[in-house]
């Protein structure tokens, strides 16, 4: 063998070994690179934190939703920027307050050309889908797949809008939304890509129609009345007394299931009539009046509401079980929330809209194995405007400067407490007046204890000390003992309005 041949043979061997080493190093680097998590964003409509058993004092049991708290983090002070369905959804999509994203009330139409977190996740390699409640008028953008309800959608036999046209389904809407979501996960999802699934329920929105198998659940249960159910609305601004959202006066025959149900198949109607017929007959024979009538309405309302939530909980369990069965749980960030809080008889009310706690505060449960310590509880002041930034940060996507929220990752990956530089107070603004339920327009600031609210069309203010008055029954605005606090809260309110670029209301709004 010539020396020349040996030289080239040695050179070839050395080159091959170096190439293999480079490939091996690259493979090692790939395994250490963080893998983008799948993201499952679950939102119910009008699901009060008082109706999730992971929260203290809940009325019911939600074992599947509770799994997210046991295996992740429960947020006890999560709030919304605008407590009403469509605007809350627009805020979450854009990470911007209502006055900037253009969707201020349920009469608005969402501008789908805006920058949204699903569009950014798409660019980052995610496969995206939205199934269920949409309620933004315009068609979804930023989603590879969409199947959404038209408007509010019915509880039974829904029509779903899709990119291929409307599709009609027979059955209970909560089940159908889950069927479509699971079909997408099983049949349409690309397993080689991370996914974003926005899975949103109509339930438990008004008028609270239970599924066939739950029509008689709770018939033998008497739920306790809220402490403030008989509120007389004294010691507050005039809006609280002049609203139109009481169980006593506002609930109608359809809400109370005293009218015949519409849109049901013969089989569904048979089950419905068999359940409500005898109960309605007993009610008519009782001939109730006064407080006894209000108490009956409350029991009818709360039982139907909780029956709807039972179906949501069952269906959330179906999706969580799928993640477990397919080995997806460990690399999936799961978020459960509502578009806002809801009144379950507190202050004698149903619905939402106010900056008072029951409607301002919303549930938030987050599970992300390996990142969130199971069973942790956070008392940080967080908002729904933080949700898109959190999902983007988890995916390793840069958060646009135009988004106004904060990523919750420092809280989620820590002990649940807010970092030192976290926001000291929250800003809120509600716009839909004149409108349903006659809740006046208002904006305000909340620092975790004190809450300052400006009803700018009325020229009235409220200030609450939630440590001394947790049910917000007595405004201390103008009280000399709170003069210093009041001045501080006004300053914070001015600072937040400037920070979030909210120069509304315009002069005409004050008339």
TrEMBL record:
Record InterPro entries: Alkaline_phosphatase_core_sf (IPR017850), Phosphodiest/P_Trfase (IPR002591), SGSH_C (IPR032506), Sulfatase_CS (IPR024607)
Every N-sulphoglucosamine sulphohydrolase C-terminal domain range: 345-499
GO molecular function, one term: hydrolase activity
Lineage: Bacteria, Pseudomonadati, Planctomycetota, Planctomycetia, Pirellulales
Family designation: Belongs to the sulfatase family.
Keywords attached to this entry: Hydrolase, Signal
Protein name (Swiss-Prot/TrEMBL): DUF4976 domain-containing protein
Top-rank lineage group of the source organism: Bacteria
Leader peptide range in chain numbering: 1-28
